[in-house]
């Protein structure tokens, strides 16, 4: 990353001598996460034509080249200059795990190292072709919103990811399919992206929008806007802002059909209750054009045993969504250590789905994938270090509850 480029001598204190020239300590610019507009300004600043931006973007995001020397349509002089002042750097992969069912997971170290780890999961379609590959991308280290069923929320918030670190996750996932492939033969494998990993993407707005603009840009990933989805827990004002800046599909982490329950499960609901959230989703869809990605919103609903999975909840949900074109995705809960909830039974989930389908909704049940590598939804936290007060408080609370249960027993 541009902000972490430090010369090796400044880290180790080695190589000092009286005659050495002072080193250029200006951090190198990381071209990985720059939008086309930013790259054009960058090249103009070097006295070059704007079209260099598109050329370099293709090398980075379509041919997965990080070495300027391999960029054969760029003059040797400009390549040398780029080498001196810039770099192309994805976040460091510290762990990767490929499941038998085709799911792939990466753990990245981001920013200043130590405990700043995030995870990215690639889920292939559960069909024979395996052609659809959906990447679930993280936008923050940890999360401030503390949804009560979410393991990431229990870590607390550590920091926002940069656009390099966000788009770098997509770069690494694509690149993992072409390690031994000749440059000219390289193609992109990831077909769909969901901003649904760690963090609330709308609370890291600018870097997320910049990275998503690269996903859509024909000089970078050129993905269809219907295949790029941002998932929010309901940061209402930023939903309106998103609708002004980007045309992508929208998903809402709803999880409860009434305010009292949603206040408990998704605490940001206290600030932006359901009436406001549904109205914002309707506004988002209304900004429609014929080719828009905004024909409907996807409603995510985690199935928590005895909490939000009863017949009354499905009826409330039907009422709540009656004027919002939506597809509903039921997510069997994946319990994490000390989770305060259990997963709804298969029968309960099917009954819930039937009630919604009978009312005319398209309602699917998410397949649990990648269980053998802890990549299933809600398990993203994995071994990621938690160093925040919330993590400590959570552990304390769980220990206290354990004591209460033991003393009651
Ligand atoms: S569900 Fe999403 S918004 Fe809620 S705490 Fe987890 S990561 Fe944050």
TrEMBL record:
Residues 129-372 form the Radical SAM core domain. Belongs to the radical SAM superfamily. RlmN family. It comes from the Bacteria. Residues 1-28 have a biased composition (Polar residues). This is Dual-specificity RNA methyltransferase RlmN. One of its GO terms (cellular component) is cytoplasm. Its main location: cytoplasm.
């Amino acid at each position: 990353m541009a902000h972490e480029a430090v010369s090796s001598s400044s880290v180790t204190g080695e190589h000092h001598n009286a005659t050495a020239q002072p080193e250029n300590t200006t951090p190198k610019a990381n071209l990985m996460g720059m939008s086309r507009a930013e790259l054009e300004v960058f090249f103009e600043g070097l006295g070059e034509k704007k079209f260099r931006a598109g050329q370099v973007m293709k090398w980075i995001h379509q041919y997965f080249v990080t070495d300027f020397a391999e960029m054969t349509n760029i003059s040797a002089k400009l390549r040398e200059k780029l080498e001196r002042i810039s770099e192309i750097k994805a976040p460091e992969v510290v762990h990767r795990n490929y499941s038998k069912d085709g799911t792939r997971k990466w753990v990245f170290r981001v920013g200043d190292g130590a405990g700043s780890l995030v995870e990215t999961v690639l889920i292939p379609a559960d069909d024979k072709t395996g052609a659809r590959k959906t990447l679930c991308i993280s936008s923050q280290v940890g999360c401030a919103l503390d949804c009560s069923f979410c393991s990431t929320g229990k870590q607390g918030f550590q920091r926002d990811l940069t656009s390099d670190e966000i788009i770098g996750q997509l770069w690494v996932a694509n690149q993992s399919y072409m390690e031994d492939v000749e440059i000219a033969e390289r193609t992109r494998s990831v077909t769909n992206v969901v901003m649904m990993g760690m963090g609330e993407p709308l609370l890291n707005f600018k870097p997320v929008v910049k990275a998503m603009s690269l996903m859509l840009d024909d000089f970078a990933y050129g993905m269809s806007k219907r295949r790029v989805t941002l998932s929010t827990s309901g940061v209402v004002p930023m939903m309106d802002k998103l609708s002004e800046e980007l045309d992508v599909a929208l998903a809402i982490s709803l999880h409860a059909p009434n305010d009292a329950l949603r206040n408990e499960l998704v605490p940001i609901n206290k600030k932006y209750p359901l009436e406001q959230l549904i109205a914002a989703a309707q506004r988002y869809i209304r900004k429609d054009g014929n080719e828009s990605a905004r024909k409907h919103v996807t409603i995510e609903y985690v199935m928590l045993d005895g909490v939000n999975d009863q017949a009354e909840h499905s009826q409330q949900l039907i009422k709540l969504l009656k004027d919002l074109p939506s597809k509903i995705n039921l997510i069997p809960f994946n319990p994490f250590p000390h989770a305060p909830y259990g997963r709804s039974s298969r029968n309960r989930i099917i009954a819930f789905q039937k009630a919604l389908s009978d009312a005319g909704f398209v309602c699917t049940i998410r397949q649990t994938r990648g269980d053998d590598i802890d990549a299933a939804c809600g398990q993203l936290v994995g071994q990621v270090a938690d160093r925040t007060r919330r993590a400590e408080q959570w552990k304390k609370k769980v220990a206290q509850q354990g004591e209460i249960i033991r003393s009651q027993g």
